[in-house]
Amino acid sequence: MNDTLLDDFERPLRELCTDDSLRAIEAGASTDALWHAIDALGYTDALVPEEQGGAGLSLRELFALVFATGKAGLGLPFGETAVARALLAAAGHGERHGAGPIAIAPGIPGDAGAIVCRDVPGGALAQQVLVSWQGEWLLLPRERAAATPGAWRPQASATLQWHTPDLAVARFDAGAADAVALCNALHAAGMAGAMARVLELVTDYARDRKQFGRPIAQFQAVQQELSVLAEQAHSATLAARLGCSAVGMRPDPLLAATAKLRACEAARSVCAIAHAVFGAIGITEEHVLGLYTRRLHEWRAAPGTETQCARLLGQALLAQPDGLFDFVRLRLSAPALA
Amino acid sequence: MNTLQSFSLVAIPPEDEALRAPVRAFLQSALHGVPPAVRARSWMGFDADFSRALGRQGWIGLTLPTAYGGAGRSSFARFVLLEELLAAGAPVSAHWIADRQTAPLILRYGTEAQRAFFVPRIARGELFTSIGMSEPDTGSDLASVRSRAVPTATGWRLNGRKIWTTNAHRAHYMCTLVRTSGMPEDRHKGLSQLLVDMALPGVTVRPIRDLSGDGHFCEVLFEDVELPADALVGEEGAGWQQVTAELAFERSGPERIYSSLVLAEAWLAELRQSAAPAASVQVIAGRIAARMAVLRAMSLAVAEQLGRGLDPAFEASLVKDLGTEFEQAIPGWIEEAFDAPGHPVPSVGLLQTLAYVTQLAPSFSLRGGTRQIMRGIIARGLGVR
Ligand SMILES: Cc1cc2nc3c(=O)[nH]c(=O)nc-3n(C[C@H](O)[C@H](O)[C@H](O)COP(=O)(O)OP(=O)(O)OC[C@H]3O[C@@H](n4cnc5c(N)ncnc54)[C@H](O)[C@@H]3O)c2cc1C
Predict the structure, then answer these.
(1) Both ends of chain A: CA-CA distance in Å?
(2) Distance CA B127, CA B106 (A)
(3) Mean pLDDT of B179-190
(4) How far apart are CA B43 and CA B86, in angstroms?
(5) Paired residues of B215 in beta bridges
(6) Which of B9, B13, B304, B3 has its CA nearest to residue A58?
(7) Containing H/E element for B94?
(8) Would you call B112 a catalytic residue per the annotation?
(9) Ligand 1 pocket mutation, candidates B244, B328, B370, criterion most atoms within 8 A of CB
(10) Which partner for B77 in A96, A131, B16, B60 could form a disulfide, CB atoms 3.0-4.6 Å apart?
(11) Measuring CA to CA, which residue among B14, B17, B95, B110 is closest to residue B54?
(12) Please, what sign has the CA dihedral across residues B142, B143, B146, B147?
């Protein structure tokens, strides 16, 4: 998968994710048809080895696809599903795929032996959730969970709670699996895509919208704001590439944290600038901008947050003997491709 | 937005990465015992002996052709070298401008005689240059330069005034941007680049002290300076295009992200002495590392594009603005960390380094083109200008 092949995915995706269909999903409409159409594009098994019927791609290659889903505004956990299917296939649970979307989340202990997955983006739309739990991956059916609606997207996302791990329909050793790292890498890629779309929306709008007799893009104050937005969006994209730079399917936890941290920082300024440039129209329900900025805020709040990522990195930096520069160079740079 | 193509992930090839160890070993002995407040000056620090020693190693003009005394290496090798110099806080300003801007400019636009004269001397660390673009009334608006050279029987007669010229008092030549035809109203037309021998009669240099007490930038007066015909670099009247190309070299390097690195390293070294840094301090350390990692990846992507002969003006402006924002944020973050519970009491040397960087930080986003000018270039790249 390279960036030009991406076209084959991006074009149909855009047609499926119209502003109206995105809005309907946020309002609780069924996502079955949308998911079937996306599944039929043939990329959901991108990471599954070729012997098992997939495309055998790496996370590095999946990046472009996840970026595209973020840019299209897709509210279903596409990247998570692709990784989950690959993990399941690798553990011999390929038959457990099911046809529906799979979310990925870290499990935290709840009351009386329950498992809680907090603020799962797309958690209300997923059919199953692959949960990392005490050294294992558990595949848990979403309909068996008690759900609390997500604060940002009540119909699409949720905090989920299963009363016992025994509800898992598949269970396997997690090895070095790290749901937080996976989510960090995938969410950063989705966020970068969403920010790319926001940049497109905002620049188009600034060229069209007139005040004082000319397009607002002709005002230097507006141009400077757009430049800052572009800087943030571009830097989030490269950060997300870094987060997904693994040659297998497991991201490096430190690179994934770098990606998520930078995406979160960028998202704060991207959302603020975008709404400022759009003026009042941007905060109306009928405008598509809000769908994107809401997603960005939700991703920012999902595990791991900006502060959690920064702390993980700071601890790793302080725990090793090298200086900052060598830490960045040796631990936080892209692995070379053989 | 061309998001997927603008910046790609690149890794430094092993043969270029291999340059790091010998450079580091050289720097460790050359800079032994130099305190951080001095090393923090790095690309503002002037040491002609150091530059000559670096030249003897073959580490100036690394990407220039061997025929002119360069090493003929890749842009990645140069990236590695610059990183090591800046991370160590080496005093590189004596040769920096000649290496980064003047030599590539002369190679690209100069005559064969100019190449043969200047480039090998630059590569040996024997000939230092300065850049005379800014004037008292001309900073961001470079097209309005008023210094003027008129043709004479033997060459050019130069009159005018330059300001903020880094190392004008120590450089052998200044690469000036002057008007050779037309009027300031003609803007981009009629500008030319001239190489001015600073020893010529009629050249007066007055160093200006900065607020930390250093004297690196200068005011320069040209009064009827007689220049030979071959002082002209490139074409008469094509100075604007030449300068624009030159500025891409000036804006693209890792020096735009590492200006506060010595300070950050000095802080971390002292922080390591506390057993368990507070969570808030860990967060600050992590933020610095993540920002630097992403900026470094972006800067590498620009180096790769320059190496392929592309013109990454948009990308370079983007990295410069983000990079200087990062460099400027570091002193504030570190100050914030000082007050966290359990933070070790900062040493006098660290406080001096912090004071120096804090005071000079505003210059980070001025030199090489201001923040607002960078954002203007980005806006043009976005198609809104
Ligand atoms: C440490 C240091 C070293 C330097 N070394 C050199 C050197 O070696 N050679 C050299 O030629 N110059 C050098 N300079 C000068 C530097 O290039 C200029 O400072 C810079 O180009 C800005 O020009 P100025 O200072 O005249 O500010 P001005 O151009 O007067 O700008 C003042 C403010 O107005 C803003 N502004 C101006 N025009 C616009 C516009 N059109 N839109 C929006 N905002 C605008 C600027 O962004 C800035 O914030 C150096 C500067 C520093 C700080």
Answers:
(1) 16
(2) 13
(3) 91
(4) 7
(5) B209
(6) B9
(7) helix B93-97
(8) no
(9) B370
(10) B16
(11) B95
(12) positive
Q: Mind listing the pLDDT tens digit for each residue in B217-229? A: 999 999 999 999 9
Evaluate: CB of B166 within 6 angstroms of ligand 1: yes
Measured CA to CA, the distance from residue A178 to residue A44 in angstroms comes to 21
pTM, two decimals, is 0.96
**CA separation for the pair B367, B166 (Å, rounded):** 10
Q: What angle do CA B69, B74, B77 make, to 5 degrees?
A: 95
| Cα–Cα distance, A227 to B379 (Å, whole number) | 5
Q: Cα separation of B68 and B312, whole Å? A: 26
**What's the ipTM?**
0.96
Three-state DSSP state, B363: helix
- Location of structure tokens 């004269």: B117
Tokens 């005071």 belong to which residue? B359
Distance between CA A35 and CA A12 in Å, rounded?
13
CB atoms within 10 A of CB A319: 10
**Do residues B297 and A238 lie in contact, with contact meaning Cβ atoms separated by under 8 Å?**
yes
DSSP character string of B157-223: EEEEEEEEEETTTT-SEEEEEEE-SS-GGGTTTTEEEEEEETTSTTEEEEEEE-TTS-EEEEEEEEE
Contact by Cβ (8 Å): A206, A218:
no
- Size (chain B), residues: 385
What is the C-alpha to C-alpha distance for residues A74 and A37, in angstroms, rounded to an integer?
Answer: 12
Residue ranges of chain A whose pLDDT lies below 50: none
Mean pLDDT taken over chain B: 95
Closest to A100 measured CA to CA, from A143, A52, A159, A152: A143
Contacts of A8 (CB under 8 A, 6+ apart): none
CA–CA distance, A53 with A48 (Å, rounded to integer): 7
| Å from CA of B364 to ligand 1 middle | 11
